[in-house]
Amino acid sequence: MPARPGSKWYEVSQVGSPCIPTTTLLIAHPTDPLRLMTDAGWYSGRDFGHALQQTRDGGSTWSQFLPPGQKVNPCTLLGGQGAQPNRWYLVGNPFGSGVSAAVLRSGDEGATWNAALQMEPDVQRLCAGAYDPTNPDTIWTAASQTPDPTLTGVRASSDGGHTWSYLGTQNIGWVNALVRAADGSVLFAATNEGIRRLGF
Questions:
Q1: Domain for residue 21, yes or no?
Q2: Domain span at residue 129?
Q3: Which residue stretches of the chain have pLDDT < 50?
Q4: Does the residue 55 lie in any domain?
Q5: Per-residue CA distances from 67 to 35, 52, 84, 112, 147 (Å)
Q6: What is the pLDDT of residues 25-37, one digit of tens each?
Q7: DSSP line for 99-112
């Protein structure tokens, strides 16, 4: 007798190696219910950063979305909808000491990736990111951990990451997450000092 809907979990992917202790990122595609992205895989120091895998059939088969060797560990993935559904941004933590946190950009569904922003060495963690699906050249990010107060605050780009500037005041603490309101009127920042909002 088949299991009732919602009564049983089915395995669709295995970590499979002690090199990575757990899967830390699982993202549902914003418009395709069968598509997922994850950092589950087999990694060691020589990989120079975690990769991302994707499934387009609900987990039956998997393929590469972000190759290893990008020198970042993925934290936040944005894109796949709106005016340019092939556009994606990846916000990533430093792979190791001497490596910068970064925002990567792809305009071809993950076939190729380029750096949209390389953070300063004192930015030790980078997870916050949001973008405007109706105008995907507009993206925001912010340092999630840094000992340097001059590096805090939300940075904005309106040209796909070619140029950046600070948005509003910088003294808002470490930003762990950014959320754009559905109507685009407000940007919310979850910080170590509370939740902030900025109206447009």
A1: no
A2: 26-199
A3: 47
A4: yes
A5: 18, 7, 22, 9, 30
A6: 899 999 999 999 9
A7: ---EEEEESSTTSS
